[in-house]
Amino acid sequence: MRRNLGFRYTLLALIVTTTLTIIPLLIVIFYSFLTKNSSGGVIYQFSLDAYRTIFSREYALVLKDTLVITFWATSMTMMIALPCAYYMALSRHKDILMMIIIVPFWTNFLVRIFAWKAILEANGFLNLILLKIGLIDTPLMFLYNRTAVIVVLAYTSLPFAILPLYNAIEKFDFSLLEAARDLGSGHMRSLRKILLPNIRGGIVASMVFVAIPIFGQYIVPQLIGGGNAGTFMLGQQIANVFFNERNWPVPSAITTLLMFITLIGFFGVRIRTLHKNRQHLAKNK
């Protein structure tokens, strides 16, 4: 009876996954090899025009800007998330700290982005403070530039970085750090040589959870960057081509290419991890 119940649940999960994930992805891949219809949609005729388009100079520049923004936003997120997760793991009030991190993200995503616009705009809160304390004479425009986009992307990604890191650090044996200090190792050296290698899995998970959503972002660069040079990301390009040019094959080709790049990266990391585990087991033997 239990085996039959387990099989039913597994079959249900397989059906849901296939219906909601695999079939739509296959449709996207299929559309990427079709011909654009000028009135929208596709013509069911094989074509590689979409892939020729995405390898043009225009798309290469958008991809470059997207990669640069993703790199710096992910780096900023990790630099903030690591100390936060470390402090939370050691704190007696970790539940309260967890609530402080999570509760703001219960509000609507768009509301939070517009709140950042209210902070960064010319007559916003940040300029008001700087004018009051006399650091500036006239308001500065903090919006519609790459730095603003990176800062807001890092803010929106923080919980996705902190939670996996906190989970990894909480399982760490802190007596190893005490032993290192007893042997004369400094605090920062102990963290770098002992803590970080032992929470590598949490770091990688955090970076993946942060970088992939940032790479496909549309709302933040659109509202905070305003579509200016240096802030235009691939998600905006997909939306423009799909809605303005009514071109379905090109966004499908971009999505297909990014999916395969992600899969190659995932399997590469997985193979490297398995190889290291085998080496570790061989040494222990």
Automatic annotation (TrEMBL):
It comes from the Bacteria. Keywords: Cell membrane, Membrane, Transmembrane, Transmembrane helix, Transport. One of its GO terms (biological process) is transmembrane transport. Pfam families: BPD_transp_1 (PF00528). Residues 63-269 form the ABC transmembrane type-1 domain. InterPro entries: MetI-like, MetI-like_sf. The chain crosses the membrane at residues 12-34, 69-89, 96-115, 147-166, 199-220, 250-269. This is ABC transporter permease. It is found in: Cell membrane. It is a multi-pass membrane protein. One of its GO terms (cellular component) is plasma membrane. Belongs to the binding-protein-dependent transport system permease family. CysTW subfamily.
